[in-house]
Amino acid sequence: MQITFPGKRVLVTGAVRGIGRGIAAAFASQGAEVIATDIDPEVQAVPSAVPHVMDVTDPNSIAAVLSTAGPVDIAIHAAGGIVGRKPVPLEDVTDTDWRTIQAVNVDGAFNLARAVTPGMKAAGNGRIIVISSGAGLRVSRTGIHSYGTAKTAQIGLVRQLASELGQYGITVNAIAPGYMPQTSPDYVPQWESLGPDGQAAVVDSIAMRRLGTPRDIANAALFLASEHADWITGQTLPVMGGP
User: Fold this and answer.
1) 147 annotated active-site
2) What Rg, from alpha-carbon coordinates, does the chain have?
């Protein structure tokens, strides 16, 4: 199966590190023109991509990038995560803690999809992919209420958008990665807190007996963005090394 993207323009959010960076690199290696975006100015250093500083929670910021870059064929929302929050008891969750995570994960996915849809409709084809999480399918390992809720909401948003946009040749799907603590500095303290025995237990609980990598998620994104997935929409693909 050959999957390449010559002549295709791909916009990736959250491209400065981890899963987003891995996705940007994978599409660039397959011939796509990659627009790498992130709120972090270090996005300027992402190789083989056209970088833009962009805030997914601000529709005007997304519009500004698209006005420069032009319509895109594929849009991938990898920005998100726990945004520096830590697990606390429910009664101690602040409004800011709750909204910060919802804004980048759910609002960001919605803002991006809304912004790229007119160009995809005009082309009669398009791919929108949201990087959700295993936390959207079960209780979150992070213990953070807003994160688990946001990742579940992303999956619901994907189904809703897919139902509306399929008639225009646009597919909308999600990928649910398993536990990947190395993809963001936010997850490292929790991983380290497990200690050697706890870390080994996590790995042993995975059917493939290893943690996932950004490339594992990128491979799934390449497939869902390809013509081989032309009749797949509204779905969430778990990529977590086992059931």
Assistant:
1) yes
2) 17
> 149 and 102 in contact (C-beta within 8 Å)?
yes
> pLDDT by residue (tens digit) across 148-205?
999 999 999 999 999 999 999 999 999 999 989 888 888 888 889 899 999 999 999 9
Distances (CA, A) of 181 to 22, 84, 153: 15, 13, 22
Tokens of residue 186, six digits? 């936010």
User: Taking the mean position of all CA atoms in its chain, how far away is CA 184?
Assistant: 13
Q: How many whole angstroms separate alpha carbon 31 and alpha carbon 33?
A: 7
Q: How many helices (H) and strands (E) does the chain have?
A: 8, 7
Global pTM value = 0.96
Residues in CB range of 241: below 8 A, 6 or more apart: 178, 206, 207, 208, 209, 210, 211, 212
> Which of these is catalytic: 147, 168, 179, 187?
147
Q: What is the DSSP string of 211-238?
A: ---HHHHHHHHHHHHSGGGTT--S-EEE
Tell me the HSE value of 210 on the side-chain side, using a 13 A CA sphere: 5
Report which of 41, 45, 3 is spatially closest to residue 21, judged by C-alpha positions.
Answer: 45
* Closest of 31, 53, 45, 13 to residue 222, by C-alpha: 31
